[in-house]
């Protein structure tokens, strides 16, 4: 079962690196906002995998609050960008 956690961590690390590249090289503000939201989701997923590996569920409330704050931040940033950038 340990190899499943290792493969999952490896895939999440690769995904995180690709998202960081998109965050740095994003052409528009919306690209960067989406990349940041995906990065937060990857961090939450990696934390969940580590909780499964260690069989410790003490951080579930913290992860839920972090996910909710990330969601609200993404919606707020998207609305702000929508008001500032013209439609294409």
Automatic annotation (TrEMBL):
* GO MF annotations in UniProt: sodium:proton antiporter activity
* Superkingdom per UniProt: Bacteria
The protein's matches in InterPro entries, at most eight in alphabetical order, are given as:
MrpF/PhaF-like (IPR007208)
Membrane topology designation: Multi-pass membrane protein
A Pfam family hit? MrpF_PhaF
- Predominant location of this chain? membrane
Q: Which UniProt keywords apply?
A: Cell membrane, Membrane, Transmembrane, Transmembrane helix, Transport
Regions crossing the membrane: 6-25, 34-54, 60-81
Q: Which GO terms describe its cellular component?
A: plasma membrane
Is this entry keyworded Transport?
yes
User: Where does it reside?
Assistant: Cell membrane
State the family it belongs to. Belongs to the CPA3 antiporters (TC 2.A.63) subunit F family.
Instruction: Kindly provide the name given to this protein in its UniProt entry.
Output: Multicomponent Na+:H+ antiporter subunit F
**Which species does this protein come from?**
Saccharopolyspora hordei
């Amino acid at each position: 079962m340990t190899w499943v956690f290792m493969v999952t961590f490896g895939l999440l690390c690769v995904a995180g690196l690709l998202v960081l590249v998109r965050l740095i090289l994003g052409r528009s503000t919306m690209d960067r906002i989406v990349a940041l939201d995906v990065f937060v989701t990857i961090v939450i997923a990696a934390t969940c995998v580590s909780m499964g590996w260690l069989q410790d569920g003490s951080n579930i409330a913290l992860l839920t609050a972090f996910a909710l704050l990330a969601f609200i931040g993404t919606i707020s940033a998207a609305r702000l960008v929508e008001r500032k950038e013209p439609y294409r």
